[in-house]
Design goal:
By secondary structure, the chain is α/β, with parallel strands linked by helices. It folds into three domains: 6-49, no CATH class; 61-162 and 301-333, Rossmann fold (3-Layer(aba) Sandwich), CATH 3.40.50.2300; 164-297 and 335-346, Response regulator (Rossmann fold), CATH 3.40.50. It has helices spanning 6-13, 17-24, 32-44, 51-58, 74-90, 103-115, 133-140, 164-177, 193-208, 226-241, 255-267, 301-317, 343-346; strands at residues 63-68, 93-98, 121-123, 145-148, 158-162, 183-187, 218-220, 249-252, 277-281, 295-298, 327-330, 333-335. The strands form two sheets. Strands 2-1-3-4-5-11 form a six-stranded parallel β-sheet, with helices on both faces. The longest helix has 17 residues, at 74-90. It is elongated and about 80 Å long. It starts with 5 loop residues before the first helix and ends with a helix. It holds the Pfam family LacI.
Length: 348
């Protein structure tokens, strides 16, 4: 099958090649009706622009860099779906790189993306990223950068995520409402901005209900590789169970910590929620099929990725000229299942 060209589209729609080209680039010179007609015809006939020729002519790569913690994560996968949907519709390719929760790896990813000429970067910072000087330096070169998911008040940029404090507060409050008083928290280092915010939400819920904050119940997991994470989660849960007065419930504050906690509790012979109730931050589509079904703080992952990509494209194309940065916090919801059912029912 012959490759469709701009000339073919122009001839079919009785337009000039210049008009078709400008319409596909979303130029202000072309009316919206014409843009829609050209875009619809191009999609229907599988038109693919010659990116290499376009890059040489315009000095633009047509690509966006995306830096994530790890691709083997259901929550991250949904965010990537949102990013890909938006970028594809706008005519951008995405280059995905993984920082593996390492600051050094994150810096290497950014260097590679800059060398490959990406027009902007979407980044969910690593668990080791507590200082944002490397991102600030890159932004100072003129590179548009948008933070997504792991947002931080320490870096000035457009950001899209959730209200981490509120999500953690609601999860902890749910356990309290269901009769649990000794509630443990499994989380990442408080140096990580989003982890610090979730720790604060947990502490605020305890305080509001006049429940003492017990440092021994707050366990910090080191996130260096899948196997190390698995071992660390299991060790922390074992330590909690060995306390003279062990917790009755556990709040796991990230997607991976949630599923690893469920597995570790089973391996250690705990009945859930009879011995330990559990709620986590997780977007796994398997939550309903786990044993028992897992209560979760659900984050709108697809929308986070979608909005972050939209904002970055606005910065790249110059459609957003505001001197002020905006942080968008999308609402969360609690999906409540058997793993955190009321305490008096848990022991039946």
């Amino acid at each position: 099958m012959a490759t469709m060209t701009l000339r073919d589209i122009a001839k079919a729609l009785d337009l000039s090649v210049s008009t078709v080209s400008k319409a596909l680039r979303d130029s202000y010179e072309i009316g919206e009706d014409t843009k829609k007609r050209v875009a619809a015809y191009a999609r229907a006939n599988h038109y693919l622009p010659n990116r290499m020729a376009k890059s040489l002519k315009e000095g633009k790569s047509g690509s966006i860099g995306v830096v994530i913690c790890s691709i083997d994560n259901s929550f991250v996968s949904r965010m990537l779906d949102g990013i890909d949907s938006t970028c594809t519709q706008a005519g951008y390719d995405i280059i995905i790189m993984q920082n593996k929760e390492s600051l050094a790896q994150e810096k290497a990813c950014l260097n590679q993306l800059e060398a490959r000429g990406v027009e902007g970067i979407l980044i969910s910072p690593s668990a080791e990223t507590v200082n944002f000087e490397h991102l600030a330096a890159l932004k100072d070169t003129g590179m548009p950068i948008v933070l997504f998911d792991r947002i931080s008040e320490q870096f000035e940029s457009y950001q899209v995520g959730i209200d981490n404090r509120r999500g953690a507060f609601q999860a902890t409050q749910h356990l309290i409402a269901n009769g649990y008083r000794r509630i443990a928290l499994l989380t990442l280092s408080p140096d990580v901005p989003f982890a610090a915010q979730r720790r604060e939400g947990y502490a605020n819920a305890l305080k509001q209900h006049h429940i003492p904050y017990r440092p021994a119940f707050v366990r910090t997991v080191q996130a260096h590789g899948r196997e190390a994470l698995k071992d660390s989660v299991r060790a922390h849960i074992r330590a909690l169970l060995d306390l003279p007065e062990p917790p009755e419930a556990l709040f796991a504050a990230t997607d991976q910590l949630s599923t690893q906690s469920l597995a570790a509790l089973h391996q250690l012979g705990c009945q859930i929620p009879g011995d330990m109730a559990l709620i986590g931050f997780s977007n796994t589509e398997l939550a309903d099929m786990l044993t028992p079904p897992l209560s979760t703080v659900y984050q709108p992952a697809f929308q986070i990725g979608q909005l972050a990509a939209e904002k970055l494209i606005e910065l790249i194309t110059g459609k957003d000229r505001s001197p002020d940065y905006e942080t968008v916090r999308l609402p969360i919801r609690l999906d409540l299942r058997d793993s955190s059912r009321p305490r008096f029912q848990a022991t039946v």
